[in-house]
Q: What sequence folds into this?
């Protein structure tokens, strides 16, 4: 009696088929997370030594979603294939060539579902591979951060992007071959002039890719260096497949194509040993020659006594419209910007004191006749 009950047919399927369909679906939904974690931990055993036993949870977190997606797809596929209807329903008829002979063929709903599931299964497999690449990059980046070589920190993200691009490229042709039954080799060979046209259209992308390789070979900068390129100044955050990300001094994220990073003048501010300071101070025309000489000598002596200052040059440089210009040039040992600004500030305050102590003052633009200046100077000299 029970056997007859399960053999009853509704909408083209027996009750037994519906029960098996439901059991597979329920088991898959309820146990997908547990199975995904178990598979992830087992797969981690392959990377156990490589990861130094410190990244097992990171590995599981990265692979949990792809494995859940894969298990859900597999469960649904197994469950649906327990049904007869409507999988055998013909969607359309078409002509196919078998041994050079045209034959009539049909395409059923079941075949369509097979194609869809195959497409999604291949996607999930390559998703898992991409997440494994992400995990390898995490481990390598953590190792690189423990070293003093910033080039390794810069290289890891780039290699990750490059490897993921190659895997995605392979995945694309796998989908073409297995799902759409396209001969990938013939497709690549048959591109011909079309391939050349595509290459020309992708000229900028190829130049940026070449630029990234040149950056890693020449190493004009590494992650964390402060650079000035094409008028943009900031710290290098990331060198990518196509572009470089710079964090400017006002904390703005600026993305510059790699070809621009190597085609123009690039100033690596981090690698300089000193910061150059150059400015002029304008003394009044009433300042006697001996006072100017004293000011020049005292500023020069003060700069020579500063431990952060190197190669100071102070001289009476030129006659301005309303000032006697004393030029000051010196180098400051490379310091953090705040420390550098404080050194400059101390020097500026000392220069003000020196000028005041010598009875002079700082000039500002005025309109005076030559006779007035001469008379004032003669009176002061007397």
A:
């Amino acid at each position: 009696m029970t056997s007859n009950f399960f053999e009853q047919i509704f909408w083209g399927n027996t009750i037994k088929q519906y029960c098996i369909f439901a059991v597979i679906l329920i088991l898959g939904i309820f146990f997908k997370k547990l199975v995904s974690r178990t598979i992830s931990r087992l797969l981690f055993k392959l990377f156990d030594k490589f990861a130094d036993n410190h990244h097992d949870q990171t590995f599981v977190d990265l692979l949990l979603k792809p494995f859940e997606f894969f298990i859900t797809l597999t469960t649904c596929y197994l469950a649906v294939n327990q049904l007869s209807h409507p999988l055998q329903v013909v969607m359309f008829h078409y002509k196919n060539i078998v041994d050079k002979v045209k034959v009539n063929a049909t395409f059923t709903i079941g075949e369509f579902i097979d194609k869809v599931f195959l497409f999604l299964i291949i996607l999930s497999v390559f998703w898992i591979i991409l997440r494994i690449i992400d995990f390898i990059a995490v481990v390598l980046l953590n190792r690189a951060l423990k070293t003093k070589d910033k080039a390794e920190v810069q290289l890891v993200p780039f290699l990750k992007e490059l490897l993921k691009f190659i895997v995605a490229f392979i995945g694309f042709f796998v989908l073409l071959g297995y799902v759409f039954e396209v001969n990938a080799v013939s497709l690549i060979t048959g591109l011909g002039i079309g391939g050349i046209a595509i290459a020309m259209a992708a000229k900028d992308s190829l130049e940026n890719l070449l630029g990234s390789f040149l950056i890693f070979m020449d190493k004009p900068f590494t992650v964390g260096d402060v650079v000035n390129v094409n008028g943009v100044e900031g710290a290098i955050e990331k060198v990518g497949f196509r572009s470089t990300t710079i964090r400017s001094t006002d904390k703005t994220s600026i993305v510059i194509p790699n070809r621009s990073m190597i085609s123009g003048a690039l100033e690596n501010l981090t690698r300089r040993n000193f910061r150059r300071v150059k400015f002029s101070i304008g003394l009044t025309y009433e300042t006697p020659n001996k006072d100017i000489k004293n000011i020049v000598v005292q500023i020069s002596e003060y700069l020579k006594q500063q431990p952060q200052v190197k190669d100071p040059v102070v001289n009476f440089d030129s006659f301005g419209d309303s000032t006697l210009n004393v030029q000051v040039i010196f180098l400051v040992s490379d310091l953090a910007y705040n420390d550098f600004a404080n050194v400059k500030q101390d020097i500026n305050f000392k220069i003000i004191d020196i000028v005041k102590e010598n009875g002079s003052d700082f000039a500002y633009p005025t309109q005076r006749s030559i006779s007035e200046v001469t008379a004032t100077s003669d009176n002061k000299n007397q």
